[in-house]
Each structure stands twice: as C-alpha cells, then as structure tokens.
Amino acid sequence: MNKPVIIGSGLAGLTAAWALAPTECVLVTPGTLTDNAASMWAQGGIAAALADDDSPTLHAADTVRAGAFVGDTRTIRRITDAAPDVVALLADLGVPFDHTDDGRLDLALEGGHSRSRVAHAGDSSGAAITRTMAAAVRDLPSVHTLERHAARRLLTGADGAISGVEVIAPDGCALVLETDAVVLATGGMGALWPCTTNPATALGQGVAMAARVGARTDDLHLVQFHPTALDVPAFPNPLLTEALRGAGAILTADGERFVHELQPRDVVAAAVWEQLQAGRSVRLDCREIPCVATRFAAVAELCAAHGFDIVRDLLPVRPALHYSMGGVSVDAHARTSVPGLWAVGEVSRTGLHGANRLASNSLLEAVVTGRAAADSIRGADTRWTPQVLPVDPATVVPPSAGAAVDLGEVRAILGASCGVLRDGESLEGAVDRLAELRHDDAGYVAWLVARSALLHPHTVGAHRRIDEQLETAAAQEVPA
C-alpha cells in the first residue's frame, strides 16, 4: 500500500492522521492546518453522557428523537456509547474543557437534549478541540502535511478502485499523489446556500469528487438550518450558539415569545421562518443570562463586530444553513462503496443524525469516524466489503469541460428551492437548471441536493415539503 492520503485538516481528518500513527500518511489541506475547517467554528462543544443522571442510552434516545426517528439505531448506539471515552481522550490530549468549582466537567444543556451533557471550552469549543488535535498531529513524524495544496479529483484504476489523487500545488501546477487509500475529510456544503454559518469554502468538494468516481451518496436533501444565525448582511452569517438558549435566552416575534427554544433545531428553525415569512421581527433575548458577556465571550465579540451588545440588545436572528446530515455513504468502518475510499466527518453519511442533527453530536462523530477510518486502513486486506448499497448510476456524472458557474446563481437556486420549506414545482425547476451546470463541482453537488429533495415528497425532520398536504388530500379524493 502507498501512503494513505487524507484530504482535509478539520477535526475528522486530523483525528484520522493522529490515529494512523505510526503508519505514515499524507495530509492534504488547501490552506494551513485547520484553515477554513468548520470544526474550528463549532461553538457549543461535544455531547457525551457523563453526568450521574445520564447514560449513553439516554443520549442515543435523544439522538433518535431529534433525528425524526429515521437515524440508523446501530450507528447511533455505537457512537453515543463511545462518547465518554472520546471526551476522556481529548482531555488527555490537552483540550481545556471547562470545569465546575468541585472539579467536574461543566456540562451544558442544548436543544433536543434531555440532560446537560455538552462538554465545552468556553464558547469556542471546536477551535479548542481542533487546535489540540492539530498540535498532536504536528508532533508526529508519520504525518507528511502538504499545505496550500487543493485536491481536485480522485483517480481510479480499471477495476474502479482508488489509484490516486490529483492536487493543485501552490504554483497552480497539477500533480498526482499515487495511493490506494484516500480518506475524505473535506467537510460540508453549506456555502452553496445564500445564508449559511459555514466557511465560504464549504462547497461540497468531497461529495463531488466521490460521486464522480461512483461513490454512493444518501440523504443529501437533509440539511440542517440553524435557527439563530445573526441576521446581518454578512457571508457567512455569524452563529449564535445553541448554548445561549440552553442558558436561558428566549426567542420573540414582535416582542412575543412563540416557541419552546429547546426543541430540536428543525422545529425551532421552522418556527422562526414562519414568523419571518409573516413579516414579524424575530429577536433572540440573551439579557437574562447571568454574566452572558464573559460566559459567551466569542459570541459577544461577534455581536459587537456588527454593532450589537449581547448584554443590552435584542439580537435579530434568522435560520441559516448549518450542517449536512447526508453525504457520502459509509459503513461502521468509514468505508464507501468505492474500494480504497473512506469518508469521515461531515462529508460522510453515517446514519447518526437521521433527518436532523442533535446539537453537539458533530464533533463527536468527527473523532469516532476519523479513528474508525484509521483502524480500517491499518487492518485492510485485499477484500473490500463495506455494508453500503451500490451507487445509483443516475447520480454518477464524470467531469467535463465548461466554464465555471456563477456561485451566486447556484446559491439563489438552492435558497429558493431547498430552503427551510420546499415544494415540488420549485424543486423541478431547480433540478432542470442545475442539470446544465453539472460540469462544475458546485453545480453538480447542488443538482444532487435538489434531485434528492425532489425524490422525497414527504416531510421528515429538516426536509419540510409544504406541498405534502396537498398531495395527501388529492390522493384521498374519491371521484363522484
């Protein structure tokens, strides 16, 4: 086996590189280590059943419920069972988790959780965890990092197995890294929407690369809108963490409270969207949270940069694309349907999140899947038997020449057709237009998303079809 190649330096990719040691690997990242990684932006923390009144069983039940009961129960149990050990591992590596006065981990309550179970490091937990893992990786002689190298496409042999990665060097030249093992850790695709909390570089490149070589994707229509992005003219939108509502912040529309703030995100996002569509002014009121400016220092700084005082002001909010529950389909070992290709973190579809991700389960999934991929690579043999269904041939579109698409158009199409609320007519138009843009990776991924949404006519979790009731009513009509 050639050196495995890991594409991406967020928490999932870093964990895979760390867990592979002492096996040598190449870590490819388009910037410097951790640049533009969504895990660096995570504010809340990492969920784990660590309190005396909690258990992995309860954590699993909350995950199933938040995911609209369509998640993979075996995956959910496997990952929630691993959560306490993941937190212990990160603490041993040096993550500065917050503690109470008696020395216990300070566990926060977030939406969808029945217990306080989110271990955090201030309100910049993702940055603290990802930087700690990056520091551990930098110390490993087994990891050869190629910074400022952008992966462009995956290469396969006559047998369909991975044979290499084409990357673009800082001087613009293309080079091929020959390998029979690639770990995709490229993150999500949230920047394909006009309002997002994701880095602007999150354009679904990993989904595009994998799908073009025949990897199966699932649930791409299942994307989560965070209900409380700061509603300001910025791209991406600043995120106001779920933990604010867990600490007591309330949502109001024209001054009146309208929703239970600690319901799962899909429910709260839909409620906020309904108020905005009715022309009401939606605000997040954090004024009653004790010591809010110091307890949520990073959020206070974000708000101040846009002219708001978190201590005194009501904060305008709106839903913004936050996370992809779907992605490249993988099994428990992070294997895809393409031999030699693993996928970890947000680019993967593990089944953990169902139709709506439970708050603070993403960093947990990143660590668990990163380690699973590393374990699988170290133990790899000549067989490739992942528990993943075969690819739908209609989704495989090889790359072709063509002008780069206008990202503004792609965002406008997805914003109009694949927003908080969806309908068949809009989706049909989106699929038709985006089919003309599939030569470009952004256009291709957007087409896959819209196509997936069109093929799912019923509401589930974050996928809300406003035409479902009309279809149901029509189906029940009996001719005279």
TrEMBL record:
Coiled coil: none annotated. The keyword Oxidoreductase applies. Its cofactor is FAD. Pfam families: FAD_binding_2. Pathway: Cofactor biosynthesis; NAD(+) biosynthesis; iminoaspartate from L-aspartate (oxidase route): step 1/1. One of its GO terms (biological process) is 'de novo' NAD+ biosynthetic process from L-aspartate. It catalyses: L-aspartate + O2 = iminosuccinate + H2O2. GO terms for molecular function: L-aspartate oxidase activity; steroid dehydrogenase activity, acting on the CH-CH group of donors. Residues 5-363 form the FAD-dependent oxidoreductase 2 FAD-binding domain. It is an enzyme of class 1 (oxidoreductase). Residues 1-21 form the signal peptide. Its EC number is 1.4.3.16. Keywords: FAD, Flavoprotein, Oxidoreductase, Pyridine nucleotide biosynthesis, Signal. Catalyzes the oxidation of L-aspartate to iminoaspartate, the first step in the de novo biosynthesis of NAD(+). Belongs to the FAD-dependent oxidoreductase 2 family. NadB subfamily. This is L-aspartate oxidase. It comes from Calidifontibacter indicus.
